[in-house]
Amino acid sequence: MPSRNRNDDTLLEKLRALSPEKLAEVEELVEFLLKQDEDHQLRRAAMRMSEPALRQAWDNPEDADYDLL
């Protein structure tokens, strides 16, 4: 884990000042953001994995006329 810096300390101070209810909301937001990032990474990985198959399917003489559109 990276070492803490001033921004970390400032954020921790602000979090400590929140009510338990607000702190729960912050936790939910952080979990949402982490999940969103994970989903984005999974989508990009799936796209990269499918590129060779799609390239093979699309790069063929029969469909060459569509390349000009």
Order of helices and strands: HH
Strand content: under 5%
Helix content: over 70%
Rounded mean pLDDT is 89
Low-confidence stretches: none
- Largest sheet, described in full? none
Distinct helical segment count: 2
What Rg, in angstroms, do the CA atoms define?
Answer: 23 Å
Span between N and C termini?
Answer: 51 Å
Summing up helix and strand content along with how strands pair, one would put the structural category as mainly alpha
- Total beta strand runs: 0
Rough outline: rod-shaped
What do these coordinates show?
It is built from two helices and no strands. It has 69 residues and is mainly α. The protein has a domain at 14-57. The chain is rod-shaped and about 65 Å long. The mean pLDDT is 89.
Which keywords apply here?
mainly alpha; single chain; 69 residues
Structural topology:
Blueprint: H1 6-17, H2 20-58
Brief characterization of the structure:
The protein has 69 residues and is mainly alpha-helical.
